[in-house]
Design the sequence.
């Protein structure tokens, strides 16, 4: 519907469309400006009341002689506020109203005045629980989009930093911010991402970034290795922008989606750069080695237990001290599922009970499970290492990718022995090597295609490049 000069017609349509009587948080108020009736629509909890109190005082001083003939002149002369817009159709107005923008109608004007005086419900900016660092900034993204863009702007004060707003979801109309640095971003990738978001036909992005990721990259769902890097740290997002990556922020989500991302990008962490080059290199290499161990340690140990003659003399200590009552493959698979069960229980456990329940779970799983004959102590040891080592890198998606590949390796090794381990090893390499980023490039660049200088940067943390003035 196009708005008319008759205020009552506009109000009748909007009150029916918005179901004003049925929604307690959708509020409208009628008053007079220079003898003309006016109506204000807003969402309770989204509007700064002090702004409207000040505007009402200004409206009371307007006389009939001061009232301009058209809405544009009124917005310039009589609306002393910075973020003011004019709308002519109801669909756009309703979308903006439900996003928290206040809408004002005045009898005699065929346009709606929009004032962005939103006050978002938000938690305070604090350090993310998952992306913690030993040294560095302690702020993190929150669920409010404008706060997140401000945290990035605070770090990059350059007009080339661009943040475009889009929305997706026929019901949710979720705001999506696409952030990039002009002159450094891959323009073809940027165009492709924008087109895919504009063409989305979904009812709502119920799971925020994950819903968006599944929509813009629907291919190769069977490959568990993540195609995107997620971070709740604004310093990581800012650094990625300066490297030419694209950052996607979704309203109501406290994390940023970084793309394109290779496996080396996902393994990198902020601590690599908050310490001197030697320490940062050690941390990065340690994380890579530990990640490889989490993938191959238990399958390799199972292979040795099935073929004791293959164990070299210097590794004789890894043999079982007691005859297993339950086949090793079942012990390992049961522990894989049990660890996930404990992890889910920890997430849903009230914080005041976390410590005592962790102690109880440790005693039961660590001592009584061995004494009962269900598990061998060696099995518990290696699975405990794998479990703890999974937390050496912050990506949940990469951790579960390693877990799925490890379980496939265990099953193949148990059924087909040496050949099963070889086949599983080849499958794990293929899952990484033949994977592609969303830009269609190699997932393990700069290994394939091989690039010496870039490869050195991935493994060794160099000094920050600088120029003398």
Sequence:
């Amino acid at each position: 519907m196009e708005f008319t000069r008759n205020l009552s017609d506009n109000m009748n349509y909007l009150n029916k469309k918005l179901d004003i009587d049925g929604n307690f948080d959708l509020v409208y108020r009628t008053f007079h400006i220079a003898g003309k009736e006016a109506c204000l629509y807003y969402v309770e909890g989204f509007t700064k009341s002090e702004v409207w109190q000040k505007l009402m005082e200004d409206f009371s001083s307007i006389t009939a002689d001061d009232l301009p003939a058209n809405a544009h002149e009124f917005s310039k002369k009589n609306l002393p506020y910075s973020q003011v817009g004019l709308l002519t159709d109801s669909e756009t107005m309703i979308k903006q109203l439900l996003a928290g923008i206040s809408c004002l109608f005045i009898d005699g004007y065929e346009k709606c005045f929009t004032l962005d005086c939103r006050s978002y419900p938000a938690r305070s900016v604090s350090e993310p629980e998952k992306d913690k660092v030993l040294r560095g900034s302690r702020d993190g993204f929150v669920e409010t989009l404008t706060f997140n863009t401000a945290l990035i702007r605070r770090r990059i004060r350059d007009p080339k930093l661009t943040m475009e707003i889009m929305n997706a979801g026929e019901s949710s109309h979720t705001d999506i911010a696409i952030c990039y640095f002009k002159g450094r971003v891959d323009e073809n990738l940027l165009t492709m991402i924008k087109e895919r978001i504009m063409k989305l036909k979904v009812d709502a992005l119920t799971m925020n970034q994950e819903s968006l990721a599944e929509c813009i990259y629907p291919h190769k769902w069977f490959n568990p290795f993540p195609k995107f890097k997620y971070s709740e740290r604004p310093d990581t997002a800012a650094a990625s922008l300066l490297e030419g990556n694209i950052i996607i922020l979704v309203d109501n989500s406290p994390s940023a989606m970084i793309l394109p991302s290779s496996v080396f990008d996902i393994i990198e962490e902020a601590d690599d750069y908050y310490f001197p080059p030697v320490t940062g290199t050690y941390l990065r290499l340690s994380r890579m080695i530990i990640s490889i161990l989490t993938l191959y340690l238990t399958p390799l140990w199972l292979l040795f237990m099935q073929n004791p003659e293959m164990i070299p003399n210097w590794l004789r200590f890894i043999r079982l001290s007691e005859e297993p009552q339950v086949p090793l493959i079942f012990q390992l698979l049961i522990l894989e599922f049990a660890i996930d069960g404990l992890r889910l229980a920890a997430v849903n456990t009230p914080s005041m009970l976390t410590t005592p329940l962790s102690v109880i779970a440790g005693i039961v799983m660590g001592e009584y499970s061995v004494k009962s004959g269900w598990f061998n102590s060696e099995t518990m040891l290696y699975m405990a290492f794998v479990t703890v080592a999974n937390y050496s890198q912050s990506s949940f998606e990469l951790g579960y990718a390693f877990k799925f590949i490890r379980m496939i390796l265990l099953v193949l090794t148990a059924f087909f022995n040496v050949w099963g381990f070889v086949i599983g090893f080849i499958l794990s390499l293929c899952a990484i090597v033949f994977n592609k980023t969303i830009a269609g490039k190699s997932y393990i660049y700069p290994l394939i295609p091989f690039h010496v200088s870039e490869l050195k940067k991935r493994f060794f943390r160099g000094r920050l490049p600088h120029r003398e003035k």
The mean pLDDT is 87. The chain is about 45% helix and 10% strand. The longest strand covers residues 26-33. Residues 261 and 283 are 20 Å apart (CA to CA).
